[in-house]
Specification:
Largest sheet: none
Shape: globular
Distance between the termini: 33 Å
Number of helices: 4
Structural class: mainly alpha
Number of strands: 0
Helix content: 40-55%
Radius of gyration: 11 Å
Amino acid sequence: MTPKRKQPDLKTYSGRVAARLIALREKAGLSVEEIAKALGISPRAVYHWESGRSEPKLAYFPELAKLLGVKNPRYLLPEK
């Protein structure tokens, strides 16, 4: 069973990053656990990214972009 995720606060930059990651992950059809396993991190870290509690380290951006089907890692970031 997947833990209930805290909704990101879209008024903050971290919250907008979180919302973007959630949308891209769901569009790619991947679970939090699949992302975590592919990156070699805990699912809790991904849940923290998706709740806006933290943001991914830049070192994860290239692999995360590939997993989420994004051509340029910069596109993982929100527009505003």
